[in-house]
Each structure stands twice: as structure tokens, then as C-alpha cells.
Amino acid sequence: MRSLARTHMTFAVNTTQKRIRTIGWFLLVFAFLGVALFLIWFPFERSCISLLAAGEPPMMLPEECALSEAAPTGQILEKLEAERNRRGLRHQSWIACASPASAQLWLKKIDADPRWLPSYEPGRYEWRRTVIVLGSGPSATGKNSPSPSSTAGARVTAEVCLMPTWRYFQLIRGQCDAKFAVWK
Q1: Are 155 and 163 in contact (CB under 8 A)?
Q2: Residues 64, 98: contact at Cβ < 8 Å?
Q3: pLDDT per residue over 52-111, tens digit each?
């Protein structure tokens, strides 16, 4: 009699465990499919695929301006780093110009190029994930907005930064054929 009761109890426990395991597997598969669908469908709209391709930004630097790894000194460094950190950007390089005239020429080229979108904040330009943060001073267009600042020796015009990938996806999602169509 005892063995029959044990067998019945064991059978009931096994059935309950199997049900729990089956439900667990269904929940796991459902969660996995939900996450996969979210990652594939929402951030990557078909019209945005060309914007996700990495490419070199069109810098259009004059002869007297160059990308540099040498950081500026003084207040300009503090201002540019504070701005970069405030916006959550990653440093890539500096743009240094030998003269104010070459810095102004470069700014006029950036202003005229439709691929470089001005940010809502003055003195910021964006091309895909690349963000240029300008120093402060009189602007190339004469408006009261940030532009090149001087340091000892060369003039550090701007800091070239990269926007985090996830933030870039959020920025372009739903606007690939409108605002950001110039980047295609």
C-alpha cells in the first residue's frame, strides 16, 4: 500500500514539475522573441540602414587647419571637456588652425555644407555620429555664437566627438526620410 501511495505522489510531483518546466520554457521563448523583435524591428527601420553605415565625416579643413591629438591648454580645454561630458560624447580629436582666418574659412565651409546639421544649441554641428563642438568667441557668420578660441601657438577651433551608438539610434529613428535624409 505504501509503494502505491509513493508512486501516486511521485507521479503528481513529476506532472507538476513538468508543467512548471513547460510554462517556464514558453515564457523564456516568448521573452526571447519579444526582445529579438524589439531589437530588430524598432531601432532599425529600413530607411535608416544607410545612416547606420560608418563613414568619414566631410571635414573640409583648409591648409592651415588639421586634426590634432594635442589637447589645448587653459580655459578652452575646460570648456570643451565640460561640454563634451555634459552631452555624453566621446572624444575623438581636436581641430587646430594656425590662424584665425583659416578657422573662419573652415567655419564658413561647415555652415554652407548641408550635410553638417547645426544643433539646437549654437556652436554644435552634427554629421551622423560625429559631433563638432566649437570653442567660444565671435562666429564666422558674425552671429553671437561659439566659434574658434585661441591658445598659445595654434588656435584650437573645435573638438571632434562621437555620439554613443544607442543615442544616435534614438536620434534618427522615425526621421530618416525627413530631417536626416541629407546624410544618405
Answers
A1: no
A2: yes
A3: 776 778 888 888 888 988 888 888 888 889 889 998 999 999 998 888 888 888 888 888
Spatial distance between the Cα atoms of 5 and 13, rounded to a whole number of angstroms: 12
Contact indicator for 93, 131 with CB cutoff of 8 Å:
no
Q: Within 10 Å of residue 3's Cβ, how many Cβ atoms?
A: 7
Q: Is the dihedral of CA 99, 101, 103, 109 positive or negative?
A: negative
d(CA 166, CA 103): 32
What is the tens place of the pLDDT at every residue in 4-15?
Answer: 555 555 555 577
Residue-by-residue DSSP string for 24-76: HHHHHHHHHHHHHHHHHHTT--GGGHHHHS---------TTEEEESPPP-THH
Q: Where are the beta strands (DSSP E) in 20-139?
A: 65-68, 90-97, 117-118, 124-127, 130-134
Task: Please list, in sequence order, all residues whose beta carbon lies within 8 angstroms of the beta carbon of residue 182, skipping any fewer than 6 positions away.
Answer: 114, 115, 117
Report the C-alpha gap between 130 and 114 in whole angstroms.
15
* Count of residues in the chain: 184
C-alpha cell recorded at residue 170? 534614438
Cβ neighbors of 172 (< 8 A, separation 6 or more) are 48, 51, 180
- 166 in Cβ contact with 44 (< 8 Å): no
Q: Name the one residue in this structure whose C-alpha cell is 503528481.
A: 12
